[in-house]
Amino acid sequence: MKTKLKLLAGTTALVLASLAQAQAESMTVVSFGGAYGAAQKEHMIDPFVAETGNEILFEDYSGGIAEIKAQVEAGNVQWDVVDIETIDLERACSEGLLEVIPQDILPAGDDGVAAAEDFVPEAIASECGVGVIVWSIIFAYNGAAEGDKPATIADFFDTEKFPGKRALRKRPQVNLEWALIADGVAPADVYSVLATEEGQARAFAKLDTIKNDIVWFDSWSQAPQLLNDGGASMVQSANGRIFSAIKEDGKPFEIVWDSHVYDLDVWAVVAGSEKKDTAFEFISYATGSKPLAGMADVAYGPTRKSSTPYVDASVNEDLPTAHLDQGLKADGIFWADFGETLGERFNEWMLK
Amino acid sequence: MKHLPAYFTFWHILGHYSLKWTAYLVLAFLMLPIVIIVPLSFNAEPYFTFTDGMLALDPAAYSTRWYQAIFSDANWLLSIKNSFLIGALAATLSTVLGTIAAVGLSSPVMPFKRLITALLLSPMIVPLIIIAAGMFFFYTRFNLVGSYAGLVIAHAALGVPFVIITVTATLSGFDRSLYNAGISMGASPVKVFWDVVIPLIRPGVISGGLFAFVTSFDEVVLVLFLAGPEQRTIPRQMFSGLREQINPTILAVATLLILISIALLVTLEILRRRSERMRGTEF
Amino acid sequence: MTPSALDANDTASARRELRRRKLTAFLFVAPLLLFLVFAFVAPIATMLVRSVYHPVVSELIPETLEALKDWDGEALPPAEARAVFAADLKRLAGERLSGKLAEEINRALPGSSSTIKASARKLGRMDDAELASAGGAILAAADAAWENPKIWKAIRDAGAAYTPDYYLTALDLEMADGGGVQPRDGAKIYVDLYTKTLRIALYITVLTLIGGYPLAYYLANAESKNANMLMVFVLLPFWTSLLVRTTSWIALLQTSGVVNSVLTGAGITRSPLEMLYTQFSTVLAMTHILMPFMILPLYSVMKGIDPSYMRAAMSMGSKPIPAFLKIYLPMTLPGLSAGVLLVFIISVGYYITPALVGGTDGQMISNIIAFHMQQSNNWELAAALGSLLLAMILVLYWVYDRFVGAGNIKLG
């Protein structure tokens, strides 16, 4: 019995030691999964791992700052690098949840142009993140379904003319903007209207009109699934998800670009990360001309001008940059100020 | 129930058969979800439904690709390793502490017996979300959030009630005079415990340990709150898969888990029979 | 004389012996008790404390709170106090903590977070001396809300380290202006949620009873070989992972799922039914998951009932239903109460299944606690909601212990 016990204790100690070691080495990178995550894995994570020998745990999340905030405030930071939508970036940055990224770590483009000129200005506008993609929130429908085809955001809110469930991401961002546009507010005025008490009431009232027809989802990956299995007839989605369902899986989905809300995603480093240096090394690698060009696989535009030569020209029509005139730029500053207030109001509205 | 008594009227007979059919209906309800998952996991297409090809029993509509997907995905492999490791360590911890405690608890002179029993069993009753929130607040102070140690401790606490229940049940058939005899012959309580009590209650201890293992193996709420990316477990991986990207890999994992449950069930049955036999020889 | 002295001696040594045995028994339990106190009791205690103790604001702006101490709370606070706050806010903006403050104040006064954040951004560029002399005016220029005493009152109230506010919120109440408690504006959110949770738990309990009682009766009275075989069909689901069973219900109930295919294929329904992500799917899946908890205690009690009682009653001419109600049912009460209480207690605190199949409609109180832990980061409100849930569970557990005995739980 005694020897058995000793053996058990020995093995346990060994196992724990090896676990502790494994823990020390690998860095955790968090992004949105699905087709986008697969593209990042192929063009950024795997080459970086192969080149530097660093281990990376690649995790999925569904966006927002809550999880980062919980880690930073509780003082146990689990994530190192996170892909954040710029609509959330300013808030996370101003609340001290992210490390400041020194911009001199960013290499010049493959054509030799310095990083500061090579990046589109929005991509390096924040001290807390470096742009990865230009993407857009659109809505899509199943082209194989019978009946009229929706063409505008007003159609999305018109359940009489277009019956069926609408799938929306469970957060106030973008949904409130769309509600106002559908209610007749000019895209240019959306944020100034939404900053007023009346504007907020108006947006929620508009959402109320379709509340019973909304299917809520948490993660972008669910959007094409809902469209595919008939859970919703129109879905809000990141454009790349639908693009990939059309191109890769041959789905008869159609994207509606009217009033799309375009935004950037950035790589950021969680404040207090123990692997800050590796994290910076990763970001400077992943935002090189070539890795960024890989994001066009899923119809997300690169944030460096020098990436353009690597991008297959046939995809240009599907990039958000080809539709900017129909779109609205997501306002990260607005959401930094109003995220709390509108978030709470949105939750209460949901529970009612 | 083969032949019905003579005094049975028509209504008795109707009652008898409707009871029988109700029972079978409920059994079907209990088994359906378990049975349905197995064929679905061999779907050649990335859906959760039976395709036309599957219904026509076309071999091309079936495939083992989702099983291959599990074993070629680093995240699944890590979570399988973690589930077994955390489960084994947590079960060991709760079995050792729980067995010793059960011996004290089954003593007729144990002070505050009822209160302490209720306390020791409470991890089974308190909602997991409350435990998870509390542990998240408290374990953070000791740097236990996002560590293996934290999860092992948390899961061991959850497993304790099951060990207490099974071991005290075995001890209730245990003849205390054996223990007292050992003590009166001058052996220390620890020695008597180790040499006399343990061998006799071993089946109960092992099944308690299995219960504790399964509790940890199946647990996901505490993992969601306390684990870091390194400590992902099978249920955690399934949970996020169901929330984010539903694909049949989850069904393949589920089928494997059903096989594990069958193995556990058989083991427990064997243990139960052995325990009954041992008790039988005592009387 | 002598016999009684001997007696006293005997009693004393017997007492000593008893004390020694009590101590030994306790020492066996002690390691586990210590472990559970650390691993389980202390965390729950921490949660209870967290629901009332929240010193964040008092640590962020101690000087402002000091300056607001003598303010009557009626008119605008004195200019000096406002200037102190302006300086505090600028410092916080520099330390990137103004967002934290805004979040906290917003809980007391919804809508104030944008005021504080936007002002903090503007103040960050101001000169210290300027702020010290005209802080109040600068604030008012940044946002008109600073001229309303309401926000100042919210700041002062949020500064209290100990607060019953989270319990009030959890009960849909708020502090009235003149002291006292009043219902919060808007719909009742959390009280409705507690009632909904109890209602769902009740549905599940009733359903498991309706299905479980006849099955347990059938199994208890079937031939033992047959019964053992059928018992496997109860135990296998019981031992199968919760996630597996929930996964399976998703496959069964989704729009293009198995049930809908059968229904439309058989021509029973024209278009697929919306079953997944509703309260219906939550109740159905949880009934399935908790059914064994009802069957097992019923079965073990019914197994011990001699069938000759019923037979005797019926052979003497009693009708089956009265015979059942008068004779059989009372004898199964111990198993019945154990099953009912166990299923009810477990369902009230359930999280995973509603989270996965409940959609918006099927969310229970645990899901909202998780939401405030993980999404809205309002940990204090989560703690208050959790404490109320815990209180409910403890009452039920006490009832269970009274009537069934916590130690009598049977596992398979």
Automatic annotation (TrEMBL), chain A:
This is ABC transporter substrate-binding protein. Belongs to the bacterial solute-binding protein 1 family. Keywords: Periplasm, Signal, Transport. CDD domains: PBP2_polyamine_RpCGA009. Residues 1-22 form the signal peptide. SUPFAM superfamilies: Periplasmic binding protein-like II (SSF53850). InterPro entries: SBP (IPR006059). It holds the Pfam family SBP_bac_8. It is found in: Periplasm.
From TrEMBL, chain B:
It comes from the Bacteria. Residues 80-268 form the ABC transmembrane type-1 domain. It is a multi-pass membrane protein. Keywords: Cell inner membrane, Cell membrane, Membrane, Transmembrane, Transmembrane helix, Transport. Its main location: membrane. SUPFAM superfamilies: MetI-like. It is found in: Cell inner membrane; Cell membrane. Gene3D superfamilies: MetI-like (1.10.3720.10). InterPro entries: MetI-like (IPR000515), MetI-like_sf (IPR035906). Pfam families: BPD_transp_1 (PF00528). The chain crosses the membrane at residues 21-42, 84-103, 115-139, 145-171, 192-214, 250-271. Belongs to the binding-protein-dependent transport system permease family. This is ABC transporter permease. It comes from Albidovulum salinarum.
Automatic annotation (TrEMBL), chain C:
It comes from the Bacteria. InterPro entries: MetI-like, MetI-like_sf. The keyword Glycoprotein does not apply. Residues 194-400 form the ABC transmembrane type-1 domain. It is a multi-pass membrane protein. Belongs to the binding-protein-dependent transport system permease family. CysTW subfamily. It is found in: Cell membrane. Keywords: Cell membrane, Membrane, Transmembrane, Transmembrane helix, Transport. PANTHER family: ABC TRANSPORTER PERMEASE PROTEIN, INNER MEMBRANE ABC TRANSPORTER PERMEASE PROTEIN YDCU-RELATED-RELATED. The chain crosses the membrane at residues 25-49, 200-220, 232-252, 280-302, 323-352, 381-400. This is ABC transporter permease.
